[in-house]
Specification:
Elements: H1 11-16, H2 33-56, H3 71-74, H4 77-86, H5 91-112, H6 115-124, H7 144-175, H8 182-187
Helix pairs in contact: 2-7, 4-5, 5-7, 6-7
Length: 188
């Protein structure tokens, strides 16, 4: 079997990769893989939490019920999360967008819909809030386990959003003062 001589690439080419970045040939996006995975996880957790809203009924609203409620504008969170993904080359902007969602979620879960209320609808099977007093959840079940799951999901959403915002912020700090990818700075 004939041997093929190995010729190493120059150090600058090995460092830059085929895509011009230090990411193995994939152009650098500015955001780390960790940030993008956390963003995806926070989005999935948010979708599960909104599904819980719809099933509990007392904190749901348009487009699932005829009334516009605080639930309705909460769906704009996905616009902000998509925006964080779309501008991932500028991780500082992504961190701010996710941070805004985090602040709104925290405020909502402290002032509008506490984890105890989330638990209560599932544990007793009906709402005890004045605007929906006695309204059963859509599954018509009484399940303390689902109540615990709803409250844990709510807290997990806040933790995931915090981790995502901090990860994007760390990416921005690593990228330098203008939020450019470190590889773009070294290539200049």
């Amino acid at each position: 079997m004939p041997s093929v001589p190995f010729t190493p690439a120059p150090p600058s080419a090995a460092r830059a990769g085929a895509g011009g970045a230090s990411t193995g040939g994939v152009p650098s996006t500015g955001a780390s893989r960790r940030s993008l995975v956390l963003l995806a996880a926070a989005t999935v957790i948010g979708l599960l939490h909104h599904t819980d809203h719809v099933l509990r009924v007392d904190h749901s609203g348009w487009p699932f019920l005829p009334n516009v409620t605080p639930f309705t504008p909460s769906l704009l969170a996905y616009v902000f999360l998509y925006g964080a993904y779309h501008v991932r080359a500028r991780p500082r902007v992504s961190a701010v967008l996710v941070g805004v969602v985090l602040l709104v979620v925290l405020a909502a879960h402290v002032f509008i819909e506490t984890p105890h209320q989330q638990y209560d609808v599932w544990a007793t099977g009906v709402s005890h809030l004045p605007h929906a007093l006695g309204t059963p959840n859509l599954l018509h079940v009484t399940s303390p386990a689902l109540g615990v799951a709803a409250a844990v999901l709510s807290i997990l959403l806040s933790v995931a959003l915090l981790a995502t915002a901090l990860s994007f912020w760390a990416d921005a700090r690593r990228a330098g003062p203008r939020g450019r990818a470190a590889s773009a700075v070294s290539a200049a």
